[in-house]
Amino acid sequence: MCDHTIGYLHDWVTVSNVKKTLESEATGxxxxxxxxxxxxxxxxxxxxxxxxxxDFLDGRKGYCMNMFKHCPDxxxxxxxxxxxxxx
Length: 87
Fold this sequence. Notes:
alpha+beta
């Protein structure tokens, strides 16, 4: 049974580690956002307040994961709807 490689975000992302990887990425962006917003003068917000794991699966945003349509290891089509629901 293949643990499908579904994309690339700093490292290869598989079905088994997608949730952990995206939660870690969201936490990092949230920490960065808090730091950047605390360094601005006044109440200006440089970055948004909270990032969610699902944000990194949205192809319309600039910080998304490179997503594959098919697993490069076995060639099976990736079911993105199932993955997005699981997150």
